[in-house]
Amino acid sequence: MTQFLTCTQFQRMSDYASSNCFIALCDLINSVPPHSRDDQFLYTKQKQLKSVIKQTIRASLEFAATGSDVYALDHLRRAMDAYTAIGVRVIKYSHMHDQGSLLKPLNRQLTHWLKAYKDLGEKSPLREEIRVVLAKYVADTGQNPTELSRHYFHGLFKPLNHRTLVPHKTPLSTGGELQSQLALSPCERDEIGRELEKTVAKFVALFGKKTVMDYVSKPLRMVVFKERKQYVCYGNYPYRINTNNGGLFVKGEPSSPHNQPSLYVYYQERKILNLCHEFVHFLDSKYITYGNSAYLPSEWVTFWQEGVAQYLSGQGEAYAAAALRRDPDGQRPSLSQIVDIDAYSADGHSDRLYVWPYYVFKYLASTPETKDIRSALAIALGKPDHGGAYKRVLTEFVTAHADRFNAWLDTETILAKTAREGANAPRAAAAARA
Fold first, then answer.
1. Each residue of 327-339: pLDDT tens digit?
2. 365 φ, ψ (degrees, to nearest 5)
3. Could you tell me the fold of the domain covering 161-287?
4. Contact, 371 vs 294, CB < 8 A?
5. Global pTM?
6. Of 343, 349, 346, 252, nearest to 298 (Cα)?
7. Which of 263, 350, 251 is closest to 306 using CA atoms?
């Protein structure tokens, strides 16, 4: 963090490692529990923190306007969240009843920075990004949108409405509703329905369709954006999701009848990216895994969640085989390492999250014995015992099958390489003839 704070603004904005440092700083500012000792400590350091955040907001706008930095918009969103959190923290510890007076300096500062962008065209992507971060700032600081739009922000702010963002709604044949930015043709709707129904059939064949205990959520809401840029922009607000991914399922609190399980995906090359993968996460949450996303430690269940999604969605085989051919035997993780992984410990290495868990699931489908273990893991995940039964079954599996899994993976490696050589043979023969 110190290294980040002492480098130049251009380095902060353009370097991947510095970008990660800035993400960590913003996460710290945003996620510290209210009224904790850390919260009070950050309040005492607000002057230093505000200086970094202010610099980043200004630089992010400049770089985004010129298109000179790939991280600029992400930094803008995160910096605005941190700017909001600092403002809210000031209000909390100031003991003043006039909240508006405390927020006016922040509003004036933002208005000053945004003056240079007031003439952006109505269809400018940057104008829409500014509108979104301002709407989130106004909502999170509890201010009156009508009053702010009259006195601040040069006309760049106006409230957002979910209904206008995804105006097209279609019932899903598997239950729930699809909400889309694009108007889908009957053929497109039917294709989505067939893909989801096929995924359900594969899931039910392995695990059945008995709803997990205490699950009383609303039917699934599937939100489909027309492209990744829209997904990232509106995922930030009003949907408030992490968009550093290729799609997301948000489980929520399944024991509440008011809970809305939601799946967020987007189009890429005229196909909805990772549609079935994210849909499997929903099926897992409804029919296998008990509780909300915090009920079990993520390092216990990530291998299961990503492995079953890759295995059943039909997306895993080619991607996994390429990794198997690429990675030397000595650099493959062990079975105990594969089942003890989450997004943080994977540290950006997608193979750790998707390839190796996929192969564990493929192994679990290889014999009657391993299929019984897969069933035992699924049953244990549905127990409301904070993972006690699941951890015991998982530990027994790893202890008994570590060596067998490695030997099986050696065979898979040979098959993957042989398949690649077979695919290349016709091209080599054609080249020889030429």
1. 766 678 899 999 9
2. -95, 5
3. Glutaredoxin (3.40.30)
4. no
5. 0.89
6. 343
7. 350
